[in-house]
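Appendix B, record 7
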Amino acid sequence: MLQSRLAAFLAGPVLLLAAPSADAQYLHGYLGVPNEPPGEECGGGYSMYVAAWPLLEEWPGTRFQTGLFGTWMFARKPEREVEGEIYSDIEGGLGWWRDTRFATATPKFIMGGVTLNFATWANGPGAGKGRDWDQPRGKYGVAHLSPWVVWPPDGLNLAQGTCGELFGYGYLPLPLTEAKETTAGHEVPTGNQCWTLFLNTANFKGPVAFFTPYFFSQHTIDRPDLAGIFLDSRPADPRRAVQMETQYIPAVLAEGRRGGTFARCAPTRFPRNDEEGSVLVHAITSYRREALWDAARAWFDGGPAASGRIDPDSAQRHRIPGHGWSTWQFHPEGGAANEDQRQLDWASFAQPAALDEFTFGYRWSEDWMAEPGKKDPPLFTLPDHYELPAEEKGDQAPAQWAPREARKVPARRELAKAGFGRPEGYRAEPYTTPDNGCWTSPGPVAGPFIALLGDGSTITYSWYRFADQPALLNADLSDAEREELQRRVELLHREWTKEREYLPPPSRGELASLDSALLVEPPEGLEIGYVPICTRQGMD
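Structure tokens (predicted):
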């Protein structure tokens, strides 16, 4: 499936980055984080801490797309046989994407839920596949939950200048709704698992938003044979790959005058946030469903209030064995994907390692330190010039692109003409929401309010009664079902405050912060049962 996703990505327009004398290329591939999976009983979600940092010094344009380290959470495979491909998951994380409009060097976070074979996807409240509200395609798939955080459609902003701190996040199911025997009037069921995003950052902790069960079940209306096999109903598969998926880092290629091929890529950096090197992934943890579900279920049914603290006795951390792998390789613009493409010789400058029993990172070769002998900078810059010797280009052996010092590359004058900086004159179109329908009826109860974000964009948001937000008016819920959901969320708003601990804390590193402009306080009288919903984001 990953290859088909890459092929679809490559079909888009090309951003020219090189002089005509060099061939445009890009870097793409995966960096793998092997980890020992927990038992099958751990189907109640996960959490982990991942480093957040500026991979490139400048955002190089709309072709640039890469995640930082993240994972894919699929539903556990059904016991029965089903026909055809059934790709559906939650696969968001930190990074930059082709549809990131207000990009800086600092990454953003998206939720990245995917329905059947990418028919729709949801990146957060009001954000999904495309921007045509006549074809929502996932933009109503996430309901906003927190009264203290506003979520921009371009992604959740981290504080500008974040450089190696750990961003803690995870998904656990909450019984906010009840299971249904019908879906949008059709005789197919919808489950009651509301997969909820929890954050642990330096300035905010707790639940933020959740995927509505209908987001996953909606496609069973046309495929009733698939009823009950998606994340609205099924436990999560605890065997999750943890990788850094990179689809496009700009680069150029040139033939050497005396043979051989040379390449140059945009300077690419990794954090040096630890004495041993780079802490990149920490405390991958899977949970049994009772880690949070049982206490919340009893509370909603009239029992004592649940603290929201995820039970560590219902958790299992994934051990890190201490090795890793890379498939990073250069690829020509417009060319077909080729599994035999020569890869970068990662081992020449990076050693994957278990920095402790539950922490993955890299140790970097001193041969490629920018300033050996001086105080370590906060970032390690990978080599940006590479050579593929002439005698190896047609060889069947797995030749690799070897790093070279720029001064030792004969074609350096040609390669030096390439530019990898922010495109001149780039100006993003604003995100806007409809001014009718579910956005205005019943509509907001306070606002609009304005906030200026660290990425330079301005957001407009208003306060909606929780059950009256547009996502829940499009979640296949009756008025009575929405009122019961409202009651449960008011319990959460009273008890699950932003100062509490929810996810198990990290045992090393410092926590990253959200952009402080996203942290809001409800207006007087709207502290319980109301949420801020972003209605516009633009550069004004």
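Remarks on this record: The longest strand covers residues 242-255. The first helix runs from residue 2 to 10.
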